[in-house]
């Protein structure tokens, strides 16, 4: 069983989180552990979604304020973590080593344990301070994967665009996907 931690922070782009969780939920041998920040709950509602949709695709859902939960410990083995979408605040705090909620602590643990951590920033434009934080995270071992879908697979729907980004995330978590690939 591969345990994947999914952290959802308060940036716009909740459909990316929903799509990824939907793709993870149908995979054999994957156990999804979900942490949704307080800010993400507000943004999800603003973007017209019901946050319960996210929880429906997870095996375990954590209180974002519970720093004693399993993902806060390096002794809790996982196959990786993704933060999707990653707000600039989350990126900045993580780059500074601040872990004042469970999402940040779990991401910090993935860095310190050298486990896969995929950070999916969605904000634009990116000011220098955020670019520096993203570079710092990349140097610390995180994969910085902007929510920037490609078009060579000729998407016809928004779900196709979301699925492109989810496919790239799955690739970096070591999970085979059946999404868009460059055909050469």
TrEMBL record:
Keywords: Flavoprotein, FMN, Lyase, Prenyltransferase, Transferase. FMN binds at residues 10-12, 37, 87-90, 122. Dimethylallyl phosphate binds at residues 152, 168. It comes from the Bacteria. Gene3D superfamilies: Flavin prenyltransferase-like. Transmembrane segments: none annotated. Flavin prenyltransferase that catalyzes the synthesis of the prenylated FMN cofactor (prenyl-FMN) for 4-hydroxy-3-polyprenylbenzoic acid decarboxylase UbiD. The prenyltransferase is metal-independent and links a dimethylallyl moiety from dimethylallyl monophosphate (DMAP) to the flavin N5 and C6 atoms of FMN. It holds the Pfam family Flavoprotein. Belongs to the UbiX/PAD1 family. HAMAP family: ubiX_pad. It catalyses: dimethylallyl phosphate + FMNH2 = prenylated FMNH2 + phosphate. Its EC number is 2.5.1.129. This is Flavin prenyltransferase UbiX.
């Amino acid at each position: 069983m591969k345990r994947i931690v999914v952290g959802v922070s308060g940036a716009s782009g909740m459909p990316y989180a929903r799509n990824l969780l939907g793709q993870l939920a149908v995979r054999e041998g994957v156990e999804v552990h979900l942490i949704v920040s307080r800010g993400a709950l507000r943004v999800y509602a603003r973007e017209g979604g019901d946050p319960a949709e996210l929880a429906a695709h997870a095996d375990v859902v954590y209180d974002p304020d519970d720093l004693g939960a399993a993902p806060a410990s390096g002794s809790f083995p996982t196959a990786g973590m993704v933060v999707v979408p990653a707000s600039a605040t989350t990126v900045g705090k993580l780059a500074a080593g601040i872990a004042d909620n469970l999402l940040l602590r779990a991401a910090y643990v993935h860095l310190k344990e050298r486990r896969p951590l995929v950070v999916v920033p969605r904000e634009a434009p990116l000011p220098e301070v955020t670019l520096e934080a993203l570079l710092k995270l990349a140097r610390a071992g995180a994969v910085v994967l902007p929510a920037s879908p490609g078009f060579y697979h000729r998407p016809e729907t928004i779900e196709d665009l979301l699925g492109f980004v989810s496919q790239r995330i799955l690739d970096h978590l070591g999970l085979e996907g059946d999404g868009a690939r460059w055909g050469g």
